[in-house]
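Appendix B: a complete holo record

For completeness, this appendix reproduces one full record from the ligand-bound portion of the collection. The bound molecule is nicotinamide-adenine-dinucleotide. The inputs are the chain sequence and the ligand SMILES; the output is the full three-dimensional arrangement of the complex, encoded as structure tokens. No fields have been trimmed.
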Amino acid sequence: MSGHDDLNFGFTPGDVLLVSGAGSGIGRAVALRAAQLGLAVSAWDLDERTVGETVRAISDSGGTAIAVTADVSDNAAVERGFAATTRNLGPIRYLVNNAGPSSAVEMPFDDGLLAGVGSVRRMTETWLAGEVPDGAAVVNVASVAGNFLGTESPWYCATKAAISGYTRYLATYRTGQVRSNAVAPGMVDTPRLAGFAASEVGKRSLQRNPLQRMATGDDIAYATLFLLSPLASYINGVVLPVDGGWLVAQ
Ligand SMILES: NC(=O)c1ccc[n+]([C@@H]2O[C@H](COP(=O)([O-])OP(=O)(O)OC[C@H]3O[C@@H](n4cnc5c(N)ncnc54)[C@H](O)[C@@H]3O)[C@@H](O)[C@H]2O)c1
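The structure of the chain with nicotinamide-adenine-dinucleotide bound, as generated:
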């Protein structure tokens, strides 16, 4: 467990947080930690089984969560997911756009942009078109890739930079509705990067990281939850690296 069970971050218990990609890795960590902070969680994923496990873990420890099986790149599924969330939990105050394809997936550049940043926009605009409570906030999961580093693959690098650009647009023009920020994780120990730390390139990367380890899902989840929380009410439009100091040590 986290060792931070007394944290609250100023959240109002029962407020609703929606997180996509909640069946694994960073998204699952956000869901579990948000529930520990007293938020009601709408956990979304493509994978019905894994998101069901996330929700069961929350329910077993006394929290509130629902599972939504939805592909964030599918308009109709997104509309249905928002309707189901509001019907079951009430208006959504917090959104975490975390789901996105792995950089290892080979796909045409344009498809990658649609799947990556197109989905972040779709989720956000669908949410903002409905009833959004005061104090609403969104955090989009970008990456050090594209924002601070050039990496493979081309669509991944471009889409992560575009997510930050879209976040800055929201932070400038949509403040009547929402406060908007992004996190830029470095290397995170999730199923997606399984085996990376032991690989040659992984070892070389970790040697250049001042903290000499990958991030945990919780490292990214707590940064995300802080940016969403009322404690961060004057933080708007940042892209926060959560990378152990990897960037500054390059
Ligand atoms: N792991 C890292 O080192 C790292 C670094 C920087 C950024 N990120 C970003 O963090 C986010 C989460 O990565 P992770 O490492 O936790 O990945 P992960 O593979 O462990 O989990 C991703 C989850 O998202 C779901 N998902 C994927 N596409 C979806 C879609 N279209 N609709 C709904 N659900 C979908 C998957 O089923 C999976 O459960 C991604 O946006 C990724 O680009 C990860």
